[in-house]
Amino acid sequence: MDDCNPDLEIVTVRPTESVMTLQRLPYFVGVSATTAGSKVLSMNMVVIPAGGEAEPHYHRGYETAIYVLKGRIETRDGAGLKRSVVNVEGDFLFIPPGLPHQPVNLSATEAALAIVARNDPGERETVVKYDPTPLR
Questions:
Q1: Residues near 78 by Cβ (< 8 Å), separated by ≥ 6?
Q2: What whole-number distance in Å separates Cα of residue 30 and Cα of residue 72?
Q3: How much is the average pLDDT of 76-105?
Q4: What is the per-residue pLDDT for 122?
Q5: Whether the Cβ atoms of residue 25 and residue 112 lie closer than 8 Å to each other
Q6: Which of 86, 89, 104, 111 is packed most tightly, with the most Cβ within 10 A?
Q7: Measured between alpha carbons, how far is 38 from 9 in angstroms, rounded to an integer?
Q8: CB 46 within 8 A of CB 114
Q9: Which residues contact 6 (CB under 8 A, 6 or more apart)?
Q10: pLDDT at residue 95 in the model
């Protein structure tokens, strides 16, 4: 079967304003089902303000890939968010579905920027808030 379709067109998205996510971080929506007609993919730019952090959360049912454009970001992850990794400009991250995590901008003076891609075409992903305090 030939899957070539010369009638399709490239879609360019130039976001001009951000939307606030459930994680409390501003996103510039790029490729999504709404903006580009994507069926299984989305890609956005996230801004972590100076000294800012996301709400602890995990992504139900989809993978996330991140490329750090600017800044030093600590990502706390795992049970109780007890593990930690620091990523810098040029680093790629992979976050499996269901892994609790919380990115934190380590700079008190500059915003951190990252490109976020996922195998979910929604522009506002299915995010589940995570409480890192242990059950008693």
A1: 99, 100
A2: 23
A3: 97
A4: 81
A5: no
A6: 104
A7: 12
A8: yes
A9: none
A10: 97
Bridge-based pairing state of the strands 64-70 and 26-31? unpaired
Every domain of the chain and the residues it spans: 19-129
Task: Convert the pLDDT of each residue in 21-73 to its tens digit.
Answer: 888 899 899 999 999 999 999 999 999 999 999 999 999 999 999 999 999 99
The CA-based angle 40-45-50, given to 5 degrees, is 145
Q: What pLDDT score was predicted for residue 135? A: 59
3-state secondary structure (DSSP) of residue 75: strand
Q: Which fold has domain 19-129?
A: Jelly Rolls (2.60.120)
Q: What integer pLDDT is reported at residue 123 of this predicted model?
A: 63
Enumerate residues 6+ apart whose C-beta is below 8 A from 1.
Answer: none
| Torsion sign, CA atoms 70, 35, 26, 65 | negative
Residues 44, 66: Cα–Cα separation, whole Å: 10
> Cα separation of 55 and 85, whole Å?
17
Which 3 state secondary structure label does DSSP give 104? Answer: strand
Does pLDDT of 104 surpass 70?
A: yes
The predicted structure's pLDDT at residue 2 = 78
CA distance 42 to 52: 24
